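Milestone M4 deliverable, item 7.
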Amino acid sequence: MTDALLDAARDLFPALDEIGAAVPPGEALPRKAMDLLADAGLVGPMVPEEVGGLGLDVLATLDLYEEVARADGSVGWCYFASDLTAAYFGAYLPDSGAERVFAEGVPTMAGQFAPNGTARAEGDELVLDGDYRFGSGLAHATWAGAGVMATPEDGGDPDYLFACFPADEVDVQGGWDVMGLQATASYDYAVRDVRVPTDQSFDFFVPTVHRGRDLHRLGVIPLTAAGHAGWALGVTRRVLDELEGLAASTTRMGAPSSLAESDRALVEIGELEGRWHAGRAFVREAAAAAEAEARDHGAAGVRAQTLLREAARHVNQGGADIARQAYLLAGTTALRDGPIQRGFRDLHAGAQHFFASPSVAADLARVVLAEA
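Output delivered:
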C-alpha cells in the first residue's frame, strides 16, 4: 500500500507545482490543492486507522511528507501540519471526543499549540481565551486547535492542554506578509470565550494513547520534529533537482564553460548532493530508532527523542544553506521567479521555526555529555 501511496503523491507533482507557483504572495492556497490530496487517498498518513487515517509508520509518513513538499513548499507545509494536528487528536482524545471530531472522517485541522491562551473549567467544558499566531492552513480548516494553560475548578496548578473545536469559532486576523511559505496563510487568530468539551482536549505532557501505532507513543514533540524534517528534505530535494536540471545549459557571465563542465561547480553540486543524502539518512535513522524504542519500551527515551529533534534541526538549517548555495550557483536564473527562488524563500522561512532552533543542538550536547 505504501508504494501505491507514494506513486499517487508523485503523480500529483505537476498539478501541485502549478498550483503553488500560481498563488499570489500572501494569499492562501486554493482549496483545490487539499482536494487533490484527498482524492488521491493521501489524507491522514500519521492519523490512526481507528479514526479514518492511513495509520502509516514513521518512515512511510516521512516519504509522503517529503514527496508532497518536493512539489511545493507551501502545499507540503499545510499537508504535514494538518496531518500532525489530526494525528495528535486522533491518538490522544478519549473515545467520546474522537467520535465527535472525526465523525466525518479525517478533518483538515490547523492551529498553534504554544500555551498562548488560558482555559477555565466550567463543568464538563473548558472556556478558552487566547491570541495565537501561525495558524498554517487555517483558511481551509474545518477544525482549529490551541494550546492553553487550564486552571482546574478547585484552583490547583494549571495543566498544559491541547484543545480543538470547529474552525468557525476563531477570529482570523490575517497578518501573513512574509518572505517564504507565502501561500500557507499562517494567519494570526484569536479565541474568545470558546466553549470546548473537556473530552476534546488532552494533556500535552502526559497524553494517553487511546489508539494508533507505536509512533504515537512518541508524543507531540518528536512527531512534530519528524514532520518538519520530512518537509525540509522534500523542498531541498526540489532545489537540487532544479539546479542539476539546468547545470548543462547555464553558463555564468565570464565563465568559460557551463556549470556541468566546471570543475568547481561540479565539486559544489556533488557536495550539496552528499549533504542532502547524509541529512536524509540521519532523519530516517533517528525516526526509526525512536519508533522502535517506543514499540519495545512503551516510550522513547530522552536520547532518542533528542536525536530526532536534532535531525529535524539539521536538515532544516542545512536545507536553507544548501538552497542558498544552489541559488548562487544558478545565478540570474534563480534571481527570477521559479522553483529555486521559491525553495530558497520557503526553506529560509522554515528555518525560523522553533523546531529548527539551535537550542536543540545544545539539548543534544547536554544529553551526550551527561552520558560521557
